[in-house]
Predict the 3D structure of the following.
Amino acid sequence: MFNVKIKTLMIAAVSALFLSGCTESTILWPEGAEQPDFNVYENIELDDEQLLSDWQDICLEESDYPMAAALDFERHEKDGYVDITLAVKDGTSREDAAAFAVEAIQAFNDQVAVQDFSYDSAEDGSFGSYFAHLEIRLKIYEESAYEAEGEPMYEASVPAGSYSTFEE
């Protein structure tokens, strides 16, 4: 009986010794895999092409925004403003165009926040922290006028740090 206990103990000790030889885990970080970078960086340079692409993926989604036709922007941060141009399908009401503009501007801010974590996401009643120090110069076109480079159906300027629902 005493021999059985000693043999069992010896087998367990040898097994533990062999198993403890595998101390480097490659399950979470396989060899050659890039490690995540958790450093905080300042003065991030935004990638405008990626920003536009991501913003379009969100705001031109037919099931979410059936009135949306096109959108574009130009950042003039040194001059203190951002031009935002939206096009809605012909026949879209001014109320629907205004509601779309609010959501599109908030989505723009959120995509900036994805690239630069120093900005907060937009919330109800706010366009987000990206626009805290930048004026928004908005133009909303009907699709046909946008394509023909005609006159916008609605133009507005929102001072930095302000919010608007674009209702007249």
About this structure: The mean pLDDT is 88. The first strand starts at residue 68 and ends at 76.
